[in-house]
């Protein structure tokens, strides 16, 4: 088992990402190979981990998968590392629906058998912070976490206050206080409507992380944390294979840039494990869909910040339209879904509602056979968006753990093709070739979706190619659309 420590807090916005980023940089400076993993369905925190640690970062989520599978995913994501940092989500016990510690950081710490570093924000407090820490330790014991080892880092804390609090907290709570970070406004990472801003939006982010690391080396007992992380060293999943990739069989284009950056690492690697060669391109830099691509994946992100730029990138947008029109299997999530509507590829209009429209975990049941899943099959994921559209679709029924449900996801042919059916290639294998909606699916919760997507690309590769008109029955005059 790779040495690890889980970094959590009593509440959100206590400085977890700052601390994890700093620790990544410190450990890397000690010539350690660092892996970083985020608990929960977060896309942005792993981007900061990657910059700080110089490594890919992944996610584990105990709602998306069971405990055994989550542990296996963790082993894969941390394979080859000397040390793993796990960033918790929200507060330590905050789990499913706010009423349970299921899928919480506490749950993850138990599954991974990881020591826990509590980042305690002491701004505006003194000894009261001991009550908060003691509450965490005692509640963990009552809920079956008596074997967990806790450490504390005081954030937004002066050196003088640290000197007064350290001994008191250790005496009252029975934990080691390993250090502190002074408040520094330059370290603050701003937020926007979906959470933290992405690293590319933070001026001098690498320099900021380096400065945090320098301070941590002076004010935090790094060796104690490293030693604590080595407490859990026996291998729990010795038979798991960490060699996911196999010889590429088919190219799948993936839109990836500042506008489209919300992808689960595990989703991409699972596609590769079934034979996909992922070919990244940037719509924001006017790059076309890569030649030879046989499927298209457009993830979420912040495309709403770049609407005008994306519209101006004619070469890229026309290549996306052509891919959809020519029958490539296309899967688009959230921001990617809105992008297809922006380009007129999908029907419907959208607007910013200025508040969260649908939020949180859900299980998605497929209501119609398609190239990703069969009717009745299910996959887990989440929705998190401020925009809504007049055409959400009904390919899936989303069900939250509390019972609320709603229809979602379009399953269609490109809007241009629905109006002029003859513009599809004769041998294109899918009458409906676009699956697009607000949900972000977590592929490991049903790996068949990744296998089916790759197989759809293979089918397209083998059957497409004719430029002749389809001569479909609904076409008034074969070839009248003027496209072929």
Plain-language structure description:
The protein is 31% helix and 22% strand. The C terminus is likely disordered. It starts with a strand and ends in a 21-residue tail after the last helix. It is elongated. The chain has a 7-stranded parallel beta sheet, sandwiched between helices. A 6-stranded mixed beta sheet has the order 12-10-13-15-23-22, sandwiched between helices. The longest helix has 16 residues. The protein is built from 14 helices and 24 strands. β5, α5 and β6 form a beta-alpha-beta unit. α5 runs parallel beside α6. The protein is α/β, with parallel strands linked by helices.
Strands, helices and their partners?
Layout lengths: L3 E6 L6 H14 L4 E6 L4 H10 L3 E4 L6 H11 L5 E5 L17 H8 L3 E6 L6 H15 L7 E6 L3 H15 L2 E6 L9 E2 L2 E2 L8 H15 L2 H8 L20 E6 L4 E3 L2 H9 L2 E6 L14 E3 L1 E2 L5 H6 L1 H12 L4 E4 L1 H8 L7 E3 L5 E9 L11 E8 L1 E3 L6 E4 L5 E4 L1 E3 L2 H5 L14 E4 L2 E2 L6 H16 L21
Parallel strand pairs: 1-4, 1-5, 2-3, 2-4, 5-6, 6-7, 10-12, 10-13, 13-15, 15-23
Antiparallel strand pairs: 8-9, 11-14, 16-19, 17-18, 17-20, 18-24, 20-21, 22-23
Helix pairs in contact: 1-2, 1-7, 5-6
